[in-house]
Amino acid sequence: MSHNKELSEADKSRIIEMAWEDRTPFDAIEFQFGLSEKETIELMRSEMKRTSFKMWRERVSGRDTKHRKKRKEDVNRFVSPNQY
Among 81, 62, 83, which residue's Cα sits nearest to residue 71? Predict the structure, then answer.
């Protein structure tokens, strides 16, 4: 992954945290860090234990909230209004 070398450990940690969050779409990660969905998956694969990665992939595969195009039309934000 080309972006992997450019990311600080803090950035990697935040990306992993965002990727685990159910309601954070891959678009938000791309907007904030410049990583596509594919690159985010590559980062997750390289930074996580195999079993954790497999669990994460099963969890996010097909999840509407992780893909902006699949989200309900009335959801047009990256973060919950409850977050500060």
Answer: 62
